[in-house]
Amino acid sequence: MLIRVEKGSAVPISSQIAEQIAMHCAAGKLASGDRLPSVRELARELAVNQNTILRVYERLVREGLLEMRQGQGTFIAEDSTGRSLASHRKRLGEEFRQMARQGIALGLTADELHEILSKALEQVQPPVNKQPAKSKTGVSS
């Protein structure tokens, strides 16, 4: 599980870690029943305090994404992918609404906002591999 912590960020470290674990669940990189590193292991790997990791795990347990099993460890909860994806979609919708409000306050039109989003998507999406067109004989041209 790849987690990156930006120590100079305005976003608290615990929020960064929780968000990345939730994103891994939403993306299917972590599946129901997968075991997470122990609090001690993850704290050492990320060079953060063990209490930070413990708080993250406890928060994600409360949110239903993780479950802690006494003596066994911390695991991804059943149906965590669906819950995490729904939560991220809701949060993303809220962020888009906030950005739309800001754009409108700046005097941008709906078309200009769409253009900004399209350009942003072009910058983050990998290029689409285009297959060569096939002729009627089935041979690529």
What does this structure look like?
The mean pLDDT is 85. The chain has a two-stranded antiparallel sheet. The chain starts with 12 loop residues before the first helix and ends in a 17-residue tail after the last helix. Strand 1 and strand 2 (73-76) form a beta hairpin. Helices cover 54% and strands 6% of the residues. The protein has helices at 13-26, 39-46, 50-62, 80-105, 110-124, and strands spanning 66-69, 73-76. The protein is mainly α and 141 residues long. The radius of gyration is 21 Å and the shape is elongated.
Give the beta-strand count.
2
Q: Low-confidence stretches at least 5 residues in length (pLDDT < 50)?
A: none
Percentage of residues in DSSP E strands: 5-15%
Shape: elongated
Please identify the top-level CATH class.
Answer: Mainly Alpha
Helical content band: 40-55%
Helix/sheet category? mainly alpha
Integer-rounded radius of gyration: 21 Å
As laid out across the biggest beta sheet, the strand order is: 1-2
Classify the fold: give the CATH topology: Arc Repressor Mutant, subunit A
Number of domains: 1
Order of H and E elements? HHHEEHH
Rounded to the nearest angstrom, the distance between the terminal CA atoms is: 43 Å
What is the level-2 CATH architecture name? Orthogonal Bundle
CATH level 4 superfamily:
Winged helix-like DNA-binding domain superfamily/Winged helix DNA-binding domain
Mean pLDDT: 85
Provide a count of the helices. 5
Largest sheet: 2 strands, antiparallel
GO molecular function: DNA binding; DNA-binding transcription factor activity
Organism: Bythopirellula polymerisocia
Pfam families: GntR
Keywords: DNA-binding, Transcription, Transcription regulation
